[in-house]
Structure prediction request, 308 residues.
Amino acid sequence: MLFTKIIFVLSVVFSYTKSNSLEFLELRNTDPSIIEDATLDTFTLIKKYGYPCEIHRVYTEDKYVLEMHRIPYGKENSIKGTRPVVFLQHGLLSSSAEFVLMRPDKGLAYVGNIRSPIIRAVAPFTNSLEKILKLIGANEILPNGNLNKLAGEKLCIEEAITQSLCTNLLFLFCGFDVEQLNKTMLPVVMGHTPAGASTRQFIHFGQLYKSGKFAYFDHGWWTNRRTYGSFRPPAYNISTIKVPIFLHYADNDWLSTPKDVDKLFKELKSVVGKYRVPLDNFNHLDFVFANDAKKLIYDRIIRIMAQF
Prediction:
């Protein structure tokens, strides 16, 4: 019933994108720079705020093209000289834009376990969902498109009567935390989120939740036997990871719960520490979008990295 209501609301919103009846959302006091940021890609956002940026494309063996963005140095740094690499990997339905959306004073780029209601809803029907998506020819779930543009430019701006819809959609999947939500920047966030994900990636996450195991993709017993040599997909052996890992978590994170983090902490052999964010309502998106993310998370990460 809940998802039916969400789909109904979104269908109404989509109907507005094909009409000219959005004048009631026009607000005179909206910062034009916020609206602009909601529509810019990662490369252009970085360049807008005076930082250098490079685009690198990685071609995988299975014919995917991955676009990576690199900030080689800061505003005050010299171009020459070698520096350690800091790699930031976004999560499901996200993109590299998340690390720069909050601008230089708060964005992580200037200084990856999913358990959500949507995954729980998908998990029991992963096999049927794959067949349906193949039938209709859908290769991507929740792609970034017209709805994101509408959200960034109209629906989620401050004082808009529809802004509460934007906040509640975020809270519905990630946990409620009004205190840390920057409503001024909400149009920028919703203009880039969700960023889409392949259908198989989404189905894989549903399989992981359903089985409770971190395993390879389950193709079905016949293809599994040909691909893996067994009827069931083998589990990833994360105990062999040797890179030092420091885990950060929050009690109100619905996508990576404290229980999940404890399980990961016990299975990993290279964990050097675990830290709970000392705010009861801190949620999954707060790790990148919270008002106090820099003070609570980013400054700690930089201090930890300096030890290695």
